[in-house]
Amino acid sequence: MSGSSSFAARTYRDDAVVLRTHKLGEADRIITLLTREHGQVRAVAKGVRRTSSKFGGRLEPFMVADLQLISGRTLDIISQAVSKGSYGQQIAAHYDRYTVATAMAETAERLTDSDQESAGAQYRLLIGAFSALARGEHAAELILDSYLLRALSTAGWAPSFTDCARCGNPGPHSAFSAALGGAVCHDCRPPGSPSPAAQTMVLLAALLTGDWPVADASDPANRREAAGLVASYVQWHLERVVRSFRLVERL
Ligand SMILES: [Zn+2]
User: Fold this and answer.
1) Could you tell me the distance, in angstroms and rounded to a whole number, from the CA of residue 164 to the centre of ligand 1?
2) Is residue 188 part of a domain?
3) Is the previous residue joined to 191 through a cis bond, with omega within 30 degrees of 0?
4) Residue 40: in which H helix or E strand, if any?
5) CATH code for the domain in which residue 62 is found
6) According to the UniProt entry, where is the signal peptide (predicted)?
7) What is the distance in A from the centroid of ligand 1 to the CA of 232?
Protein backbone atom coordinates (compact mmCIF):
# COMPACT_ATOMS: atom_id res chain seq x y z
CA MET A 1 0.00 0.00 0.00
CA SER A 2 1.45 3.34 -1.02
CA GLY A 3 -0.48 5.84 1.11
CA SER A 4 -2.74 6.99 -1.75
CA SER A 5 -4.38 10.39 -1.55
CA SER A 6 -8.15 10.64 -1.25
CA PHE A 7 -8.29 11.75 -4.91
CA ALA A 8 -6.44 8.64 -6.07
CA ALA A 9 -8.72 6.44 -4.00
CA ARG A 10 -11.76 7.85 -5.78
CA THR A 11 -10.23 7.60 -9.25
CA TYR A 12 -10.16 4.44 -11.31
CA ARG A 13 -9.23 3.42 -14.81
CA ASP A 14 -10.87 0.83 -17.03
CA ASP A 15 -11.58 -0.11 -20.63
CA ALA A 16 -15.20 0.46 -21.55
CA VAL A 17 -17.61 0.27 -24.44
CA VAL A 18 -20.31 2.95 -24.77
CA LEU A 19 -23.77 1.35 -24.71
CA ARG A 20 -25.92 4.48 -24.78
CA THR A 21 -25.77 8.21 -24.19
CA HIS A 22 -28.29 10.83 -23.24
CA LYS A 23 -28.23 14.56 -22.87
CA LEU A 24 -27.77 16.21 -19.52
CA GLY A 25 -28.19 19.96 -19.13
CA GLU A 26 -26.64 22.30 -21.72
CA ALA A 27 -23.46 20.54 -22.77
CA ASP A 28 -23.09 17.29 -20.81
CA ARG A 29 -24.12 13.71 -21.40
CA ILE A 30 -24.77 10.72 -19.22
CA ILE A 31 -22.91 7.78 -20.75
CA THR A 32 -23.96 4.20 -20.00
CA LEU A 33 -20.83 2.06 -20.19
CA LEU A 34 -19.98 -1.60 -19.98
CA THR A 35 -16.50 -1.82 -18.49
CA ARG A 36 -14.00 -4.66 -18.52
CA GLU A 37 -13.48 -4.74 -14.73
CA HIS A 38 -16.22 -2.66 -13.08
CA GLY A 39 -19.40 -3.97 -14.71
CA GLN A 40 -21.99 -1.53 -15.96
CA VAL A 41 -21.24 2.09 -15.08
CA ARG A 42 -23.25 5.28 -15.65
CA ALA A 43 -21.02 8.32 -15.80
CA VAL A 44 -21.21 12.00 -16.70
CA ALA A 45 -19.06 13.38 -19.52
CA LYS A 46 -18.89 17.11 -18.83
CA GLY A 47 -18.87 19.45 -21.80
CA VAL A 48 -18.92 16.53 -24.25
CA ARG A 49 -21.46 18.24 -26.53
CA ARG A 50 -19.26 21.30 -27.06
CA THR A 51 -17.30 21.24 -30.33
CA SER A 52 -14.19 22.07 -28.32
CA SER A 53 -14.68 19.08 -25.98
CA LYS A 54 -11.53 17.28 -24.91
CA PHE A 55 -13.43 14.01 -25.46
CA GLY A 56 -13.85 14.64 -29.21
CA GLY A 57 -16.01 11.86 -30.68
CA ARG A 58 -14.64 9.21 -28.34
CA LEU A 59 -17.76 8.75 -26.21
CA GLU A 60 -20.26 7.97 -28.97
CA PRO A 61 -22.29 4.72 -28.93
CA PHE A 62 -20.27 1.52 -29.64
CA MET A 63 -16.92 3.27 -29.14
CA VAL A 64 -14.31 1.50 -27.05
CA ALA A 65 -12.05 3.62 -24.88
CA ASP A 66 -9.57 3.49 -22.06
CA LEU A 67 -11.23 5.71 -19.46
CA GLN A 68 -10.27 7.44 -16.28
CA LEU A 69 -13.23 7.93 -13.95
CA ILE A 70 -13.93 9.53 -10.61
CA SER A 71 -16.38 7.71 -8.35
CA GLY A 72 -19.44 9.71 -7.40
CA ARG A 73 -22.32 9.05 -5.06
CA THR A 74 -24.85 8.34 -7.81
CA LEU A 75 -22.99 8.88 -11.09
CA ASP A 76 -19.28 8.64 -11.78
CA ILE A 77 -17.48 11.33 -13.79
CA ILE A 78 -15.35 10.62 -16.85
CA SER A 79 -12.15 12.63 -16.58
CA GLN A 80 -10.20 11.16 -19.51
CA ALA A 81 -10.92 9.04 -22.59
CA VAL A 82 -8.38 7.48 -24.93
CA SER A 83 -9.84 5.76 -27.99
CA LYS A 84 -9.23 2.03 -28.48
CA GLY A 85 -10.21 0.65 -31.85
CA SER A 86 -12.64 2.40 -34.15
CA TYR A 87 -15.60 0.03 -34.28
CA GLY A 88 -17.97 2.92 -33.68
CA GLN A 89 -17.30 4.77 -36.96
CA GLN A 90 -17.38 1.63 -39.08
CA ILE A 91 -20.66 0.59 -37.49
CA ALA A 92 -22.32 4.01 -37.71
CA ALA A 93 -21.49 4.28 -41.44
CA HIS A 94 -23.84 1.37 -42.30
CA TYR A 95 -27.49 1.53 -41.32
CA ASP A 96 -27.95 -2.26 -40.93
CA ARG A 97 -24.86 -2.50 -38.73
CA TYR A 98 -26.02 0.48 -36.68
CA THR A 99 -29.45 -1.01 -35.93
CA VAL A 100 -27.88 -4.38 -35.07
CA ALA A 101 -25.34 -2.72 -32.76
CA THR A 102 -28.15 -0.79 -31.06
CA ALA A 103 -30.01 -4.04 -30.34
CA MET A 104 -26.83 -5.63 -28.99
CA ALA A 105 -26.04 -2.66 -26.74
CA GLU A 106 -29.59 -2.63 -25.39
CA THR A 107 -29.41 -6.34 -24.61
CA ALA A 108 -26.01 -5.96 -22.93
CA GLU A 109 -27.36 -3.09 -20.84
CA ARG A 110 -30.33 -5.15 -19.67
CA LEU A 111 -28.24 -8.25 -18.93
CA THR A 112 -25.58 -6.39 -16.93
CA ASP A 113 -27.87 -4.00 -15.08
CA SER A 114 -28.18 -6.26 -12.05
CA ASP A 115 -25.76 -9.08 -12.86
CA GLN A 116 -22.25 -7.68 -12.26
CA GLU A 117 -20.84 -11.20 -11.94
CA SER A 118 -20.92 -12.04 -15.64
CA ALA A 119 -20.26 -8.43 -16.76
CA GLY A 120 -16.61 -9.12 -17.67
CA ALA A 121 -17.67 -12.01 -19.91
CA GLN A 122 -20.46 -9.87 -21.40
CA TYR A 123 -17.92 -7.13 -22.12
CA ARG A 124 -15.65 -9.53 -24.04
CA LEU A 125 -18.59 -10.99 -25.94
CA LEU A 126 -19.90 -7.56 -26.96
CA ILE A 127 -16.47 -6.31 -28.06
CA GLY A 128 -16.04 -9.44 -30.18
CA ALA A 129 -19.46 -8.93 -31.78
CA PHE A 130 -18.85 -5.21 -32.49
CA SER A 131 -15.48 -6.04 -34.00
CA ALA A 132 -17.02 -8.69 -36.31
CA LEU A 133 -19.77 -6.23 -37.23
CA ALA A 134 -17.32 -3.40 -37.95
CA ARG A 135 -15.25 -5.67 -40.20
CA GLY A 136 -18.36 -6.94 -41.99
CA GLU A 137 -17.20 -10.53 -41.43
CA HIS A 138 -20.68 -12.04 -41.72
CA ALA A 139 -24.21 -10.87 -42.46
CA ALA A 140 -25.14 -8.33 -39.76
CA GLU A 141 -28.31 -10.21 -38.75
CA LEU A 142 -26.35 -13.43 -38.24
CA ILE A 143 -23.84 -11.65 -36.01
CA LEU A 144 -26.77 -10.26 -34.03
CA ASP A 145 -28.50 -13.62 -33.56
CA SER A 146 -25.25 -15.34 -32.63
CA TYR A 147 -24.48 -12.56 -30.14
CA LEU A 148 -27.96 -12.75 -28.57
CA LEU A 149 -27.81 -16.52 -28.07
CA ARG A 150 -24.34 -16.31 -26.54
CA ALA A 151 -25.16 -13.30 -24.36
CA LEU A 152 -28.16 -15.14 -22.91
CA SER A 153 -26.02 -18.24 -22.40
CA THR A 154 -23.47 -16.13 -20.54
CA ALA A 155 -26.29 -14.79 -18.36
CA GLY A 156 -27.18 -18.38 -17.42
CA TRP A 157 -29.88 -19.15 -20.00
CA ALA A 158 -28.09 -21.38 -22.49
CA PRO A 159 -30.58 -22.75 -25.02
CA SER A 160 -30.41 -26.22 -26.58
CA PHE A 161 -31.08 -26.74 -30.28
CA THR A 162 -30.36 -30.46 -30.43
CA ASP A 163 -31.28 -32.46 -27.30
CA CYS A 164 -34.62 -31.72 -25.62
CA ALA A 165 -34.17 -28.61 -23.47
CA ARG A 166 -36.52 -30.04 -20.83
CA CYS A 167 -35.78 -33.77 -20.48
CA GLY A 168 -32.46 -34.13 -22.33
CA ASN A 169 -33.86 -36.67 -24.80
CA PRO A 170 -31.26 -36.81 -27.64
CA GLY A 171 -32.24 -34.76 -30.71
CA PRO A 172 -32.77 -33.50 -33.27
CA HIS A 173 -36.33 -32.48 -32.35
CA SER A 174 -38.86 -30.64 -34.44
CA ALA A 175 -40.53 -28.37 -31.86
CA PHE A 176 -39.30 -25.15 -30.26
CA SER A 177 -40.29 -23.58 -26.94
CA ALA A 178 -38.73 -20.30 -25.77
CA ALA A 179 -40.04 -20.88 -22.25
CA LEU A 180 -38.53 -24.38 -21.96
CA GLY A 181 -35.18 -23.36 -23.48
CA GLY A 182 -35.15 -24.28 -27.18
CA ALA A 183 -35.70 -27.61 -28.92
CA VAL A 184 -38.25 -29.87 -27.20
CA CYS A 185 -39.15 -33.51 -27.81
CA HIS A 186 -42.58 -34.84 -28.70
CA ASP A 187 -43.43 -35.58 -25.04
CA CYS A 188 -42.32 -32.20 -23.69
CA ARG A 189 -43.63 -29.86 -26.39
CA PRO A 190 -46.29 -27.50 -25.07
CA PRO A 191 -49.41 -27.26 -27.25
CA GLY A 192 -49.02 -24.68 -30.00
CA SER A 193 -45.19 -24.77 -30.06
CA PRO A 194 -43.75 -23.79 -33.43
CA SER A 195 -42.11 -26.51 -35.56
CA PRO A 196 -39.23 -24.84 -37.38
CA ALA A 197 -37.53 -26.41 -40.39
CA ALA A 198 -34.75 -28.88 -39.54
CA GLN A 199 -32.24 -26.57 -41.28
CA THR A 200 -33.34 -23.67 -39.06
CA MET A 201 -32.50 -25.73 -35.96
CA VAL A 202 -29.11 -26.52 -37.53
CA LEU A 203 -28.54 -22.79 -38.14
CA LEU A 204 -29.52 -21.92 -34.54
CA ALA A 205 -27.06 -24.49 -33.19
CA ALA A 206 -24.34 -23.07 -35.47
CA LEU A 207 -25.04 -19.50 -34.29
CA LEU A 208 -24.87 -20.61 -30.67
CA THR A 209 -21.53 -22.38 -31.06
CA GLY A 210 -20.02 -19.95 -33.59
CA ASP A 211 -19.88 -22.48 -36.43
CA TRP A 212 -19.60 -19.75 -39.09
CA PRO A 213 -19.09 -21.92 -42.21
CA VAL A 214 -22.52 -23.48 -41.52
CA ALA A 215 -24.15 -20.14 -40.59
CA ASP A 216 -22.73 -18.27 -43.62
CA ALA A 217 -24.02 -20.98 -46.00
CA SER A 218 -27.59 -20.86 -44.63
CA ASP A 219 -30.65 -19.95 -46.72
CA PRO A 220 -32.52 -16.64 -46.30
CA ALA A 221 -35.72 -18.49 -45.30
CA ASN A 222 -33.93 -20.32 -42.48
CA ARG A 223 -32.29 -17.07 -41.36
CA ARG A 224 -35.65 -15.36 -41.13
CA GLU A 225 -37.17 -18.23 -39.19
CA ALA A 226 -34.15 -18.43 -36.87
CA ALA A 227 -34.28 -14.67 -36.22
CA GLY A 228 -37.94 -14.95 -35.15
CA LEU A 229 -37.16 -17.79 -32.74
CA VAL A 230 -34.13 -15.97 -31.30
CA ALA A 231 -36.26 -12.86 -30.79
CA SER A 232 -38.92 -14.87 -28.93
CA TYR A 233 -36.24 -16.53 -26.80
CA VAL A 234 -34.61 -13.19 -25.92
CA GLN A 235 -37.93 -11.51 -25.24
CA TRP A 236 -39.10 -14.30 -22.96
CA HIS A 237 -35.94 -14.13 -20.84
CA LEU A 238 -35.54 -10.34 -20.83
CA GLU A 239 -39.14 -9.93 -19.71
CA ARG A 240 -38.32 -12.19 -16.80
CA VAL A 241 -35.32 -9.97 -16.02
CA VAL A 242 -37.54 -6.91 -16.02
CA ARG A 243 -40.10 -8.66 -13.83
CA SER A 244 -37.42 -9.69 -11.37
CA PHE A 245 -36.24 -6.05 -11.20
CA ARG A 246 -39.73 -4.97 -10.23
CA LEU A 247 -39.82 -7.60 -7.51
CA VAL A 248 -36.47 -6.44 -6.16
CA GLU A 249 -37.64 -2.83 -6.06
CA ARG A 250 -40.71 -3.78 -4.03
CA LEU A 251 -38.78 -5.61 -1.34
ZN1 LIG B 1 -38.31 -33.84 -23.67
Assistant:
1) 5
2) yes
3) no
4) strand 40-45
5) 2.40.50.140
6) none
7) 20
